[in-house]
Amino acid sequence: MADLSFIEDNYQGSVEAIDLWYEAQDKQRGYLGLSACGDKCKRKLWYVHNGFFGKPFEGRLLRLFQLGNLLEDQVVADCRATGFFIRQQQREVVFTQDGVTLKGHIDGIIEGIEESPVTPHLFECKSCNRKRFDDLLKKIKTLDKWDVYRAWSETYYWQVQVYMLGLKLKRAAAFIYCKDTSRLKMVRIKLDRPGTMKKLQTVFEAITSPIEPDRACPRRDYFEAKWCDYYDRCFGIRKASSLLAGSTPPWLHKK
Fold it and tell me: Fewest CB within a 10 Å sphere: which of 10, 76, 133, 147?
């Protein structure tokens, strides 16, 4: 019989048991990955890099993340069946400055796409709901093709930029899958080398600050603040900066 020791005594049924299983398997990384470098909040980046854990994800969200992984596998399979070549999945990309390391893993590199058959592109796969997908379609119709992805998601834009820079690629192809309708769109992104180098420098400066940097949200009731995993710590009575007074705590170190 399966080991169900992770399930709380007062769980309400099988679906909750599934969610509890996901929560039991979830392990926060405790380090800042390259994919998070596009986050506009320097304080959040500082928290992650310096070993603070955010609010744990509930089972429903973890299942949603897993669905995204499965959809990525399907998009990869569809691309390969069509004749496109995808390689180097989960290849590691690393940047190091003054002993501090940031690393991440790519979805892959794709070659042979119809829009530019001879140019290798960073392969990126994202999934979203219909509302977000419709917003993407609107931007595709109204913006220059090279401006679409950044306008759609600043965070995702910088994510592909740092990976392109690290792999010396000049182009990325982001495949966006609508979970509600199975519609699929591809958006191409070109490397912004000066902008990405500046972005990385900003991230390194933020995460190595001796105290927590300024937060992005101006108030605790700001509409984005309530969605942040670090809301309680950021706006709580006890601030991380108070922990830094005096001796250096053991979790604050260069990685």
Answer: 10
Amino acid code (one letter) for 67: L
pLDDT band of residue 16 (cuts 50, 70, 90) is: confident
Give the model's pLDDT for residue 79: 96
CB 152 within 8 A of CB 135: yes
> HSE on the CB side for 165, CA within 13 Å?
21
Q: Which residues pair with 94 in a beta bridge?
A: 103
Domain boundaries, the chain: 42-239
Q: Which two tokens stand for residue 48?
A: 């992650």
- Residue among 205, 28, 31 at smallest CA distance from 103: 31
Q: Residue 195 burial by CB count (10 A; 0-12/13-18/19+): exposed, middle or buried?
A: middle
CA distances from 140 to 1, 17, 149, 150, 154 (A): 52, 42, 9, 11, 15
**Does 5 have pLDDT greater than 80?**
no
Nearest Cα to Cα of residue 121 among 133, 129, 130, 112: 112
CB 102 within 8 A of CB 159: no
Instruction: Report which of 62, 68, 67 is spatially closest to residue 20, judged by C-alpha positions.
Output: 62
* Tens-place pLDDT, residues 126-182: 999 999 999 999 999 999 999 999 999 999 999 999 999 999 999 999 999 999 999
Fold of 42-239: Lambda Exonuclease; Chain A (3.90.320)
DSSP reduced 3-state for 226: helix
Burial zone of 132 (CB within 10 Å; 0-12 exposed, 13-18 middle, 19+ buried) = middle
pLDDT one-digit tens code per residue, 61-117: 889 988 889 999 999 999 999 999 999 999 999 999 988 999 999 999 999 999 999
